[in-house]
Every structure is written in structure tokens, then in C-alpha cells.
Amino acid sequence: MNTHPSHHTRTLWRHAKLSTLADTCGWGLVPDGAVVTEGNRILWAGPEAAMDLDLTHGVTAEHDLGGALVTPGLIDCHTHLVYGGHRAHEFEQRLNGASYEEIARAGGGIRSTVTATRAADGVALLRMACERAQCLMAEGVTTLEIKSGYGLSAEHEARCLRAARQLGANLPVTVRTTALCAHALPPEFADRPDDYISAVCEWLPALHAEGLVDAVDAFCENIGFTPAQTRRMFEAASALGLPLKLHAEQLSDQGGAALAAEFGALSCDHLEYLSASGVAAMAKSGTVAVLLPGAYYFLRETKLPPVQALRDAGVPIAIASDHNPGTSPALSLLLMLNMACTLFRLTPEEALRGVTVNAARALGLSASHGRLAPGMQADFAVWDLDHPNELAYWFGHNPCQRVVHAGVHRAPTLVASRTALSPEGARFA
Ligand code: NIG
Ligand code: FE
After folding, report:
1. What are phi and psi of 58, to 5 degrees?
2. What is the number of the ligand 1 atom nearest to the C-alpha of 250?
3. How confident is the model at residue 416 (pLDDT cuts 50, 70, 90)?
């Protein structure tokens, strides 16, 4: 893996067509653009002709991008990347007539992945997650959120969150971890959801003290946890100063979004069954709506998230892969852009903002990620495209030429070379 540039390395990236997304609307197109980076930060981005000579003074490396399109690095702000096994058999069961909820209630679903995750060897867990991350990274992803939620015990949740941290240490991608201990009821707590929530509230301080938690999430649903249980966990997380997220209104309207908004949550995710009052509450608290077209598609959901109401209320909309073995075994964020447009009727610009500016906001990173502007982390993707609207247009094709993460240049095809894990990675167990 590349070593990080020293803070003083100044690099000029020229002959680029920039889509900066730096303003509150529009693509921020700069036809003859350049970017100057210093260490892991963007020092300047704009028309090459307007570049101050002082800026080019200390430049020690120069890259000609040949007129290619450059966007901020993509951000996948909702994934469940760390798990063992897969659930192709449940996909088959659903095609033979069973519903997702029926499978979950019969002990399959999330709980079958919990069994496989607990049984998986730690190195294998990390390796599988790295391989999945590399698929996303090959399409220009430079920041990735990774949730736990398939361990469901103090020990196994910690193990999954450590794997997520290790992934970030081993691959050129920024990782944000989310503790989703309240994802499903583990067998040890069968019929005792309140006791399980009490246990989770007790695990959180230790997970946090180990530096494993950037945010806390829950699955508020009739097959997940009630609003009252979710509230109790939010109180415990808030007491630790941890930001909140919520799987809300995915299969039914539980009033989860309003609850999350009351706690100032960073995001509410899924939202197909979001009510008008939920929209209003999110608008008031500035909570991001993370829409997940992969899960909508794979579950053959027919109720659309209230996109126009979210727009009208000024709720920022993000898009993510929701990669998980049960409802969205998708490893392409670009496909999610296309599906956000075709299924949810987002515009291509909304879709791109959904995986850059607004995805950064859903992770609490809006001051440092998601735009090409001075002071931001030097994360960008270089595309063999003429216009950024093509990112949402093509599907089943990867136009990503190269990626810069934290100022370091990489080819997007890491997945083919199966980047070796560092010794720390190998030691992880
Ligand atoms: O985001 N909704 C809950 N969690 C996941 C599904 C998890 C699973 O089925 O394994 C989701 O869709
Ligand atoms: Fe999810």
C-alpha cells in the first residue's frame, strides 16, 4: 500500500473537468480545472487559468489527468460489510413464496447471519469484508460506513467493530464505524428484548472506550425493537456523547424518524413508510434521509419513500448501498445512483449529492468530506466520462479511472490484485 504523503508534499492535478459540488446547488462544473493538494488536504480547486502562481511554487509532483472528469470521492454512508456466510437460500425461499418478515420470525434472516458471523474465524471475517470494500472502492468510494449488528454479544460486536477499524487501517479508504447492537434479538435473550437493550446499554461504554464507535444505530421495527426500547438505547448513547442513526420506517411506520429527530440524529435510513410528521421532524432537526434503493429493489418493496415531501421540507437526501447479506447484497454504489433515479425519481445531481455532500453529512463529516474545496480531505475520483450526469446513467459498467484518497493516488482496480493485509491485519483474530 502507498505510504501517506508528508504534510508538506504539494501536488498539482491538472487538465481536469471538475464537478466540485462546492455550492449548495448545481454540479460546480469547472471545464479546465486543476486541484492542488498538500499532504492529505485540498489546498485549492478551480479553473487552471485562475490558479495563483504562489500555489504552484512548492509543487513537487504533477499529474496530467488528460481532461477526465473529477468528482469528490464517493461516500457509502450505510453498509453492513462485516459478516459471515450469505443468504442466497433465503432469496430462494422468497422466490418460493416466503416473505422477508416470515423468514425473520422463523429464526432466519438477521439471526442466521449472526450464527455464521459468530462461527467465522476473525481473519476470515476481516478478509471477506476487505474484499467487499475493494469492490466498492473500485468505483471511486473513498469513505465507507460500516455497521456491526451480526455479533449481538459484547464480545462479537466488539470483534466486528475491530474488523471494521482494521479494514480502515489496511485499505486506502476512510472508515466510520457504527454500533448496531440493537439490530435483532440474539438467541441468549429470546423473548427478553428489554433485558437485551439493558445489556446493550451496558456494552456501549466499553465499546466506546476502545475507540470502536463513531455512531450508534438501531433497527426500530415490528421485527426489530420498539420505539420505547430504541429511546432507552438513544439515551444511553447520548449520555456518552455518541451521534445517532436509525433504521426507521423500513417495513412499517413506527414513528422512529420523529424519535431519532428528537435526539438530533445524524440520519434516518430506509424511510419507505415515513409519515408527513416524520418528514417535518427530520427537517426541524436537520437529520439526513438516507435512501437505500438496493434494499427497496431486493425486497420488491412497492411503497416509495416520500421523496417529494423530503425535498419540499428541505431534508438532505443521501443514497447508500446498505450492503448486507439479507436485503441488499449489492457491491456497486454506482448502481445505487442509477436505481435512486429510476426507482425513486431522484435527479442525477441529487443522486451524486447523495453519495458525496449529503452522505458526508449523514456521517457527521460535512466539514471535511464530500466536496472539492480548500481544506477538505483530498479524496477524489477520476472518471472516463464527459459529464457527471453519466454517473447515474450508465449501469453495469465502471468508468472509474483512478482514485485519490487522503492525497494518495491509487488505481481503482485493487480488487484484482487482492491487496495483501498488513501484519496487524494478519494478527487480528
Ligand atoms: O438495512 N433492516 C435491517 N437491517 C438490514 C437487513 C439486515 C439483514 O437482513 O441481514 C437492512 O436492510
Ligand atoms: Fe441497513
Report:
1. -85, 15
2. 2
3. very low
For ligand 1, atom 11, name the residue with the nearest CA.
Answer: 327
- pLDDT 10s digits, 103-142: 998 889 999 999 999 999 999 999 999 999 999 999 999 9
> Which residues form ligand 1's pocket by a CB distance below 6 Å?
109-110, 113, 219, 247, 250, 295, 322, 324-327
Distance (angstroms) between ligand 2 centre and the Cα of 117 equals: 16
- Ligand 1 center to 52 CA (angstroms): 50
Tell me if 335 sits within 8 A of 395, measured CB to CB. Answer: yes
Q: Which three cell numbers stand for residue 412?
A: 481503482
Nearest-CA residue for atom 8 of ligand 1: 326
| Residue whose CB lies within 8 A of the most ligand 1 atoms, among 76, 79, 80, 328, for a mutation test | 80
Ion ligand 2 nearby residues (CB, 5 A): 322
pLDDT digits (tens, 9 = 90+) for 341-365: 999 999 999 999 999 999 999 999 9
